[in-house]
Description:
The complex is a heterodimer.
Chain A lengths: L15 E9 L10 E4 L5 E3 L5 E6 L5 E5 L6 E4 L8 E3 L9 E2 L7 E2 L8 E4 L11 H4 L7 E4 L10 E4 L12 E4 L2 E2 L13 E7 L2 H4 L10 E6 L5 E16 L11 E2 L49 E2 L9 H5 L3 E13 L3 E13 L7 E16 L2 E14 L23 H7 L33 H7 E19 L4 E20 L6 H6 L18 E23 H5 L5 E24 L14 E4 L19 E19 L3 E12 L9 E11 L9 H4 L2 E13 L35 E15 L9 E21 L8 E24 L3 E19 L5 E3 L8 E3 L8 E3 L9 H4 L4 H4 E4 L2 E4 L12 E4 L5 E11 L3 E11 L2 E3 L1 H8 L10 E3 L2 E3 L2 H9 L18 E3 L2 E12 L11 E15 L29 E11 L1
Parallel strand pairs in A: 1-7, 13-16
Antiparallel strand pairs in A: 1-4, 2-3, 2-5, 5-6, 8-9, 10-15, 11-12, 13-14, 15-16, 17-20, 17-51, 18-19, 20-21, 21-22, 22-23, 23-24, 24-25, 25-26, 26-27, 27-28, 27-29, 29-30, 30-31, 31-32, 32-33, 33-34, 34-35, 35-36, 36-43, 37-38, 39-42, 40-41, 43-44, 44-49, 45-48, 46-47, 49-50, 50-51
Helix pairs in contact in A: 11-12
Chain B lengths: L1 H21 L15 H4 L3 H13 L19 H12 L3 E3 L14 E3 L6 E3 L4 H7 L3 H6 L3 H23 L8 H24 L4 E2 L20 E2 H20 L4 H11 L14 H18 L24 H12 L10 E3 L14 H5 L8 E3 L1 H4 L7 H4 L2 E2 L14 E2 L23 E3 L4 H15 L3 H17 L14 H15 L6 H7 L12 E8 L7 E9 L10 H4 L17
Helix pairs in contact in B: 3-7, 3-10, 4-7, 4-19, 7-8, 8-9, 8-10, 9-11, 11-12, 12-16, 16-17, 16-18, 17-18
Amino acid sequence: MCFSFSFAIGLFAQDRVITGKVTSKEDGTVLPGVNVVLKGSTTGTVTDTDGSYTLSVPTDGGTLVFSFIGLETQETVIAARNVIDIQLGSDIKQLAEVVVTGSGVATDKKKLGIAVESITSDKLPAAPTASIDQALVGKIAGAQISSISGNPGDPVQILLRGINTVQGGTSPMILVDGVQVAATDLNSLDLSNVDRVEVVQGSAASSIYGAQGAKGVIQIFSKKGKKGKLNINYSTSYASNQYINVDNHLSKANLHPYLTDSNNNLVDGSGTPLTQDAYGNYPAISYEYGGPTRYAIINTQNVADKPYNANLKYYNHFNQVFQTGSTTNNAISISGSGDKTDFSVAVANNRTVTPVMKNGYVDRTNLSVNVGTEIFKGFTFRSTTQLVYTKNTMHPGLGAAGGNNYGYGNSQGNVSNIYGFLNTSPFFDLTAKGSDGNYQAHTQGGSFLGINGLNPYYYQQYTDGVDNKTDIIQSFNANYKINRFVELDAKYGINYRDETATWTYFNQSQNVNTAHWSTGSAYYARYNNASDKNGEIDYFHYTNTFQNFLGTAFIYTDFKNDFHSNLPIETSTQISFDYRKRKYTEVGMYGIDLDINPPFNLVNAGSLSMIGPSSLSAATAPLGPTSTGSYVEPFVTYGYLVNQKINYGDIGGITAGFRSDWSSAFGGGSTPFTFPHADGFISASSFWKSSKLQEILPYFKLRAAYGEAGIQPGAFNRIPVLSGGPIGNETSYSIRQVPNNPHLQVEVSKEFETGFDFTVNTNTNGNWFQSVNGSFTYWKRQSENVISPASRSLSTGAPSYLTNAIGMEGNGYQFSLNIPIYRSGNFTWDFTTNFGHQISKITSISGGADIILGSAAGATALVLTPGQIIGQIYGYKALRSIDAPEIVGSSNPASQYTMVDGRVVDLTTKQIQFSAIATPIGNPNPNFNTSFINQIGFKDFLTFSFQFDWVQGSHLYNQTKEWMYRDGLHSDFAKPVTIGGETGAYTAYWSSAYYNLFGSTHGSGNNATKDFFWEDASFVRLRNVSVGFDFAKFTNIKRLRKLQLVFTGRNLLTFTKYTGADPEVNSGQANSSFDRGVDHSTIPNIRSYQVGINVGF
Amino acid sequence: MKKMKTKFIRAISFAAFAFAIFACKDQLNVGNPNAPSLTTNVVNEKGITTLAKGVIYTNGFQNGENVPAFTWLGDSYFSLNYGYSELLGDVIGADAANELISVINVPDYVILDDGVTKIVNTSPNIPLLRKYNTRAQSGAGYNPTYFQWLNAYAMINGCNVVLSRTDEIPYTGDKVSKANTIKAWCYWWKGWAYAAVGSLYYSGLIIDKVDPTNENFSEGNNNYVTHDVVMASSDKFYLKADSILTTISNSADYSAVLGSMIPAYFQTGHGNPPTIAEWKRNIKTMLARNILVNKLSPFVNGNLNATIMKSSTSTMTNADWTNVLNLATAGIQSSDNVFSGVSADKNPVFSTGGGTVSAMSVGTNDGTTFKISERFIQNFKASDKRLTGNFDNSLVYTNANFGTRWSLNDGGTTPPPVGTITYGNLNAGEYECFIGSSYEENMLMIAEAKIRLASNQTQIDDGLTYVDAVRTYQGAGVPAVSGTSLTQAQALTELVKERRVALVFRGLSFYDSRRWGWTYDIASGGGSYGNKFLHNDGSANGVLNTNATISYNFLDYWDVPADEVVLNPPSGSSAAVVNPNF
């Protein structure tokens, strides 16, 4: 997007020659083509390809004006200087931004009838993960982009404008330079190679993408060579990473209620101090009251008030397991451009060592090449390549990549063993080795404490994981502007990923602890194929191939020029053909019975098998792959788009069109679905162009759009099949429990959006608050034919069937404001805020019966009910009043119950009282999310920026805590409470939150979903803070453009009432539509301190 | 230059055209290369026998098709549904809360040896089952009524689908014999599945037709019928199987087809494919069981003539006993093959470690899911090698409800006693799980009928010989009781004790406790007397009571699961879907 200008140079007497260089304030690159004019004259020039200029001026000097479209105009008094170097920053007031996403034809943002959010690379923070998805957090108004896991390599959760599907998840479509990338994860792309990101959020704007567009589109534009001299940039950084644990919320009780002697030794029932047995166990541990049994925890006399200061010690398991990880980033890029050809080559490497016992790392290398050339006038050809190699060595259960359906995308690493150490009693040293010199898998206290415990150090010793992934993202673009009327454009992209994960669980039969505990239970390391402790190897190979061809013809007319009309009408017509083909394959194999000694590979395993459907991951079946082992999934879709735009000068314009799509996943197979759209805008400010209002409100645009877009059914959802799971070594066929439906229709979202964009000049002449630039959008959406398994009567042979079961609706609004808070020659301070509110409800379910979905929140399922917000969690509420109907029958409630912390507590049992029936207890989705971004610059060498993110009203079910209540391990158990005038850390009180339901002190209440664990997870987070010094300004090294030292902190501060480690996490499937509000032993986000050096030549 | 330009335009046009052609509609028919279907696979003999196998062993006995929304303790019908039976029969207990296994079996109250101390359950079985009988709780895995219904109807539907195609297959060999073998298979399992519904639920549905609009499923109806009618349907299908077996003339073709429907690795020990005659004897035994377990034969506190005042079924008459005796006499013989299975490591129907009640009970009691009940062990004579060869009492597990001193050893004691059965073995292929009936069950039905019908000592002793025969068969090594002048009540006590230990983990314990009147409220004439009960008084090992009285007060026939009733509301003329007696 280079503009060149030429104009006549005046013929005044010139006495002096001024030279200088113009560079970009954001990235230091040279700026060719900048107008340099002597103020009040016609004397001027433009900068050359080096950004340099030479201009003769009168002896008495004057003022130079530097201007360029999209950049702020700067004036400087020449005075006595002969060399004047200038840095130009981008001008947010001008909004002269051209976008293509959602509009098809590259369009000035001022002439758009839809909302497109865009962000340039300089606004994206250098997140230690060097991933685009992390960098986008908080940057897009309206979008909920959440970092839901701190496990290296895990995806963020992206929700653009509400939930409009159940099966498909919320991940938007990703485009890179106009071509869909469906085989490569967003977080594999190189952040340092991003030039710009555009986001369209809803069906109204993404209707041109037809049956794939309903979840919105994120389009990434990669860096191209810029005109000028060869640019070389090198950057390196190191970050130190630790897991967030806000206010140390997630911790284990350091005081205990167990039986002790007078010296505080823990003793058995006969007073003998406990000793650890050969299996790491303290078999005779007992509660002080109620004996050595699980349910003594509800004995009202037990109080956790004794320190571990004698024979048993307290170990901080979090310090033992969650250590300090690190990230290094290195990137080098070379770019340049001649008259006809431009190129950019970049290599970047990111290596992140997991803080989980530093058990492995994710190492990603990206090579990016972008070459464009004009072959003949009007015909340009561009090739964009990105090769990505990723190696992940984290161990299974400790963050490893791999597992069934992993290559399908959207999967988090396997962190299942985190749960094991959360549920280990704190008096065990996880780092202690048994008598055999090995780590101990399971260290249970007596027959009842830490039943669910498993030691991650054991997993580290007995497992190994390696995942190798190669991604190729290649696209070609041929563009031919035949004349001013017709432009032809062809794009072809191929995106391929090959990934192999191997998990090895070594033979554990010689581990004394395992030999003891594995009897009858599986206290040993395995995926789930080995049924004994002799180890297993799991091998997964995934390939993902995606091709996208897009052929487009554009026809442009300009009534003034072409038809000699007086009407300022410009039209553009777009006709596109779009073809997409995806093929996913997965092969899973396992070998069991490994030797004690190496080599550990499939060949040497005792027996080899294909991984069968019995180990299917829960969340994706039956809609993802349903039979692993050997799985192939082809998917083909194609369609055409017709889009007509008509603009009337700057005043207004309308767009209308439709897209028809065919798809291999549509019911009936050959029937297309058509998605219409229309939008329009009025630039109201053009009506007061030369009035006073122009001074105050120079820009005001109203826009509105309506569009429909779809979500494809799963690849095979329409094809009725039998299940083909084997029995023993033989084939067998069985009837599917969630049968497919040959008549499935595409899911359709119909959306209306309207909004306005504006600039208000508030203080044109001052330094403070010169103006406010903003954009506001309201949207309303209806989703039809949302696919879900709907229940059917069991007697007909299957509990449910797949159908277009659900209707949904949603609405929301979003805005962004940009305010140049302070501007002076030396000092700039820009402020941006992004805000989004959205809500999505179920409106109808075919047949009317609720749809039951699984959830990890306690023991109650998630229910989709008409009228309810999607994601609603059901459970038992604590009684909040002594008048509660449950206890009205009590003969004397006042003497039987009291209030503690707002909940009814039984004075006799000291137990919190919960309702007898399950009711909706809340939905996890936030009321709004907003971010505040500040960018401050001093002179040309100091930059300072920080971003706060605020998510309000989100909720999490603290399942991590509930499980830690089972055996009284959570730190809450050491907190005293006052019940009926008596104060103590009663185990009966705290444990009742896990065990009790009304009428049942233990048993049916165990791990039931209770509002006690349903917490407000609102938070304010200092997402990013960064300080940079550019030493290049103080050195005279030739050609050194930039020598910047940057200190960056990420997630340094979090303010929240949430009582888990991190309020942003979610243990559900990433991007799940419904399984959103659960913190079940999730890995928290990392807090990073990063130091980096950027060098530019 | 001009030429080049044209070339490029051509190239682009060609590319666009080529893609448009490639993207023709044929490409959209991707099929599903990963999965079989009725239309492509169930078109030959191999296809239909493969389906006939899967609809039983996967649809019927595994947790559906591993549908993820439904969590499941263990991994088969034989761990969970058999598990409920063994829990309610109080031969095991559980501490884990999954699927309500820790609470479903807690008695209403227990009175300790002192006759005064009464341990009361604040969350008794009947309201508990009803509170959790909601679709949401089924989804979370906490509705016990859900599972057996799900499996039974999945099996019935599978059989309906197979039956609808049996006659269309181009068989090789004796077509009629082969088709009839498959039909006999489907009728047998439909008899079995209806019995699973009718023996547990108050009412059920008769579903015998394939849905004309979707060949994978059965045509539903909402005419719920009482459990007696469901049991009549079970009898009907058993008899259909019996009569069609009679028509099979080619035993080689019969064996080939039957052998291909039973998983190969099940075909060991008693699990080999039965001959036609053996299968017909299996049917007789199942018909006898249908009668026996669905009527009351109260034997409360040693009282032969106890009556249960509130029940959902009637009491056995002498005619019923005679029917049972006649059927069982024509039933399974000691060398007969039966319908049973073994565990496997690879692609099992039920796994070695979690597929059966036995597997989940094996191990030291502090680590197992199911714990051996004191009320189970109390049935053994001290010298019984089945006790000494399988159980140890080295660790006491205390619990408010079912504390126990007992643990079940993996593969018996070391070394295991020769010739004595082992109750649990975690090695693949070692534990035999009975799906249909067994020789022991058949013998004990004869014994019980004979003792009940006995009018003199000879007849009592005749009955007791069958008890002794079972003890010998299982290697108990205890002295014979026949000929020891036991009264009818004493003889029945021996029978009762033997049934509880000989047939444990076979999904019959609840039915036995129910028909003997024990699971009924003491106030209704039921209850269980003279029990061992390890009372958790807070001391390290609890206090062993030896004469505890237990009033279980369990729902005798369960309500129909909400998942059926809500989605398929009963017609006006339907039987009650909620047991009206409780």
